[in-house]
Amino acid sequence: MNKNNFDPKLVGGLLETVSKKIGVPPEQLKKELEEGKFDSALSSMNRGQSEKLQQAMKNPKLIEKLMTAPQAKALYEKLGGGK
Fold this sequence. Notes:
- With 83 residues, this protein is mainly α.
- It has one domain (3-77).
- It is built from six helices and no strands.
- The protein has helices at 8-22, 26-34, 39-43, 47-57, 60-67, 70-78.
- Helix 1 crosses helix 2 (26-34).
């Protein structure tokens, strides 16, 4: 999956939301994700959640499915990326 396929507004909004939730600056979170690291996100999750995230990140088709799910679209709209 090509990272250029994602709307920058959506990515920025998601980074802001996640960074607030896990207490990591959005810039640091973005840098880690671009480097393929998930240390900050994984450290804030319980074992089951972190295992699910690690499995999902190894499966690009699952990520694509998650990003096109109605819940993801609703979050996108909520963050102001829609109409």
